[in-house]
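Appendix B, example 12.
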Amino acid sequence: MKKQLKQFAWLAVIALAACSPQPKDNPAHGEITIASDESLQPLVESLRLAYEGINTDTKFNTLYRPEQEAINAFLQDSARLVFSTRQLTDKEKTILVQEKIKVRTQFIAIDGIALIVGKQNTDSLITTPELQDIFQGKITNWSQLKGGNQSSPIVLIFDNNNSSNLNYVLKKFDVKDISRLKIFTVKSNKEVIEYVRKNPAALGFIGVNWISDGDEPLTADLSRELRVLGISEKANPTKQEDYLQPFQKNLGLETYPLRRKIYIISREAHSGLGGGLMTYIARDVGGLLIEKSGLWPAIPYNREVYFQKD
């Protein structure tokens, strides 16, 4: 009797397994939707295209949205992965725990927020205390900056009300009330660049990967007629070297003041295409692509150098 029951139980297990839906994708095959903070678009595009290039049976449908909207798409199961500049909040994690979703978070790179002005604006240096005063409403005119070369109101330009760039600086400078600030938002990082290029009084905030890949024609085009401000954390800098730009070295050494981490967050429940992309970024040439984009990879790509003695 016991033997018959065991056989019945095994048959039931096999029947249930046969009825369960099988994943339609694996690391080398399939199509999934992923989401990303729009400020990271050039980086994510290069990673996506490279992965699809070597895994020709794969396809990523990518949603580029302001960060909070990208995370919302992830929480609502409209995207399996999300590229973000922050980890999930406790409240967001609770939503997934209630659905019995296991979340995996992977730190992949250090990014920077670049401050840009048009070529007509000859001011190219600023300090973090001055930025603090700008976001506290104490400095409102370019002439109030040390070495300010123009007399016009400072207009702060961001890509979106829900953007990671805006949220980062509001948190960085502990801004509680923006009603007194001259802040304008457009629809994308690219539009921030275009606005700044045409308006000498504008101070734009963008993800540095939009202008840091020197090999990309789009980067070269977007960088035209722009200045990237050097930032000093010192209240009274005395030399040029006190000011830092969002170069790769300064991100890696964590000396550039406006830096942040980039994460991939996954809700994938099986070993699928999303996991394949995460592994590619962590273990394969993903680190090299991140370096090429001008950011600092969490896991640098190892180069083997051989010296030959003549």
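The chain has a mean pLDDT of 89. The longest helix spans residues 2-19.
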